Amino acid sequence: MMLYWGILFSAFIVGYISQYKAVYSSIVVLNYKLCDSRSIHYFPFLVFLFFLFILSGFRSVGTDYESYVSYFEIASKLGGDDVEIELGYFYLNKFLRYFSDNYVSIFIVTSFINIFFFTIPLLKKSDKLLLSLSLLAYVSIYYFPAYNILRIYIAAGFTFYCIDYLLNRRYLLYILIIVIASFFHKSALIMFFPLICYWLYNYKVLLFYIFLLLALLTMYYIIDFFPMLGLNDRYIHYFEEIDKNSLGGLGILLFYIPLFVLIYYAIYKYPNDSVVKFSLVLVWASLVVMILGYWAQTLSRLYVYFAYPHLITVPFIIKRIDTIWVKYIFVLIFICYYIFRFYDYWSGAIFSDEILPYKSLRLIFVRKGRD
Question: How many CA atoms lie within 13 A of 20 on its CB side?
């Protein structure tokens, strides 16, 4: 478990030293200090991402690990009509089989895709973000679950990367990428929900809030009919234990309090900023989805599509705060928040061998040797 805590704190440190530069005196390091720099230091950032890539690309565990191995092994023998899995993921396997018969290649490629699409936007905006918080949020909430819901993360990576197209009003390109992402996991279509919300918010804020309430009430009444929507056997069992009497969904509000406080503060300070406005929309949309996730647990997996506020918005807003003590308070709050989210995830996973990849770095090589 120490490995995972080490990765978490390394994420914050690497983000910090990648964004700030050292100023040396003529006596080498006696007057060492850190100062703001618009020029990202790529080396520590990329080395850290390469380490994350090695861990995820060469793992031998995951909730559906064996299923993904099977898909890869049969990909060259079947056509798209013969499988129940999304066609984009199936043909990716089929394409890789032309170059390798080793199933590890699918985990290498998908790990690269996941890490690339979630971190390249951070580099592109590095002069506007606290990169240390961005990396901390990525590792604490999004990196490790990708081991277990691989296809959703591929689709979410596409949608995360294309949000800038939405903010720049390139709506057709944004929609096109959502459709492409849905060929890797149909759940990517959920990103039409925040698109509609964003249009309504820009048109009239009150309509946006009314639409959210109606969406939640509508989903509450139609969720019982989800198994009748023509879903194949792989998805129907996810909705067999729907519990709409659960009040657990209200507990998720506690997770959202820091986000709402920060974003509404930013709305007050920067009411016309497109990043802030879209993030407010996205946080409310994700809250609706997460409450539904307590009624039908599989829907909680969709949270990964709403990574933008944590990876971009929080570091973006905090960096813009001029009052130093306010900035440091928010930094401390969100450091504690992401550490808690990390602990909350691993407290439930620590005794599960199917999703706990390595108990130590040594086991990476031991497992590979046994394979």
Answer: 17
Closest among 156, 163, 97 to 312, alpha carbons compared:
163
Three-class HEC string of 242-269: CCCCCCHHHHCHHHHHHHHHHHHHHHHH
Round to whole Å and give the CA distance between 174 and 251: 33
pTM here? 0.83
Higher pLDDT, 269 or 224: 269
CA distances from 81 to 75, 86, 90, 244 (A): 12, 10, 10, 36
Q: What is the mean pLDDT of residues 124-141?
A: 90
Find, among 363, 274, 367, 339, the residue nearest to 313 by Cα: 274
Query: What is the DSSP secondary structure assignment for residue 101, as one 8-state letter?
Result: -
Q: Does residue 96 contact residue 105 with C-beta atoms inside 8 Å?
A: yes
Contact predicate 69/154, CB 8 Å: no
Q: Which of 17-26, 104-113, 252-261, 357-366 has the highest mean pLDDT?
A: 104-113
| Predicted pLDDT of residue 368 | 45
- Distance CA(319)–CA(314), nearest Å, equals 9
Query: 133 with 314: CB under 8 angstroms?
Result: yes
Give the pLDDT confidence score for residue 147 in this predicted structure.
Answer: 77
Q: Which of 183, 188, 177, 178 is nearest to 93 (CA)?
A: 183
Instruction: Check if the beta carbon of residue 56 is closer than 8 Å to that of residue 355.
Output: no
C-alpha closest to that of 145 among 213, 62, 226, 201? 62
User: What's the Cα-to-Cα distance from 76 to each of 15, 83, 92, 265, rounded to whole Å?
Assistant: 41, 12, 11, 54
> For the segment 14-69, what is each residue's pLDDT rounded down to a tens digit?
998 888 764 433 333 433 344 444 567 788 899 999 999 998 888 776 667 778 88
Phi, psi (degrees; rounded to nearest 5) at 56: -85, -35
Higher-scoring residue by pLDDT: 340, 63: 340
Q: Which two tokens stand for residue 285?
A: 């949309």
Tally of CA atoms within 13 A in the half-sphere of 348 that contains its CB: 7
Give the pLDDT of residue 355: 55
